[in-house]
UniProtKB/TrEMBL annotation:
The keyword NAD does not apply. CDD domains: HAD_L2-DEX. It comes from the Bacteria. This is Haloacid dehalogenase type II. It holds the Pfam family Hydrolase.
Length: 239
């Protein structure tokens, strides 16, 4: 392990877990219970996720108080349903809650658990995610993710890529930013972290958005480390 890095913080959605497959899996079960609906679970997952960043931008811009991601996901879910032929008012509350918690039940990429375990043996491994605390805790239990700490937007009361998301997380760890490395599959996230003084590691996830993905296929800057997956990253760090 590079001795200057004491903590590795991880983007979670897309970097550590495969959100698209997990959401589509649960959306498929939900849509099948509504036979009149448009039966395209991957399109449903993409449409729901498409509202993710715009809903956070309203918070980032100060147009609404901080709201945790579960709440934003629920609002986005109800906004997505009509395009698939479903009136959200006609769906029982327990069904809506179950589907909204699809984000709590996401599977890790095949290398994630092994890679995290190796890295954890040498330094702090924690989340720096836009997901809220209970979501990330439930996901960790479901997927077997061995975090030392659950940190990110809710603890910082700021969504990435706002500087507060990175800097307040560093404060919570009582570490200077240069002793922290953000690991992410998204060049924009890494760029924002670098601006805050964090070190950076890019891990490619070329199928996060499905087989036709066009973004974040390669490292777009000279990040401190670049790896194909978390196991390779662990090897790069000597773990």
């Amino acid at each position: 392990m590079n001795q200057s890095v004491q903590a590795l913080l991880f983007d979670v959605f897309g970097t550590v877990v495969d959100w698209r497959e997990g959401v589509a899996r649960d959306a498929s079960a939900f849509l099948q219970r509504h036979p009149g609906a448009r039966q395209d679970p991957y399109a449903f997952a993409d449409a729901w996720r498409g509202r993710y960043s715009p809903s956070m931008e309203v918070v980032r811009a100060g147009r609404r108080p901080f709201a945790k991601l579960d709440q934003l996901h629920r609002e986005n879910l109800e906004a997505t349903l009509p395009a698939f032929g479903i009136d959200p008012a006609s769906v029982p509350e327990n069904e809506l809650q179950w589907l909204n918690r699809a984000w709590h039940r996401l599977d890790p990429w095949p290398d994630s658990v092994a890679g995290l375990a190796r890295l954890k043996a040498r330094c702090i491994v924690a989340t720096l995610s836009n997901g809220n605390t209970s979501l990330l805790l439930n996901m960790a239990k479901y997927a077997g993710l061995p975090w030392d700490a659950i940190l990110g937007a809710e603890a910082a009361q700021a969504y990435k890529p706002m500087p507060q998301a990175y800097l307040r997380t560093a404060e919570l760890l009582d570490l200077p930013p240069e002793r922290i490395c953000l690991v992410a599959a998204h060049n924009g996230d890494l760029a924002a972290a670098r601006q805050c003084g964090l070190k950076t590691a890019f891990v490619a996830r070329p199928r996060e958005f499905g087989p036709e993905q066009q973004t974040d296929l390669v490292a777009e800057q000279d990040w401190d480390w670049v790896a194909e997956d978390l196991v390779e990253l662990a090897g790069t760090f000597g773990c």
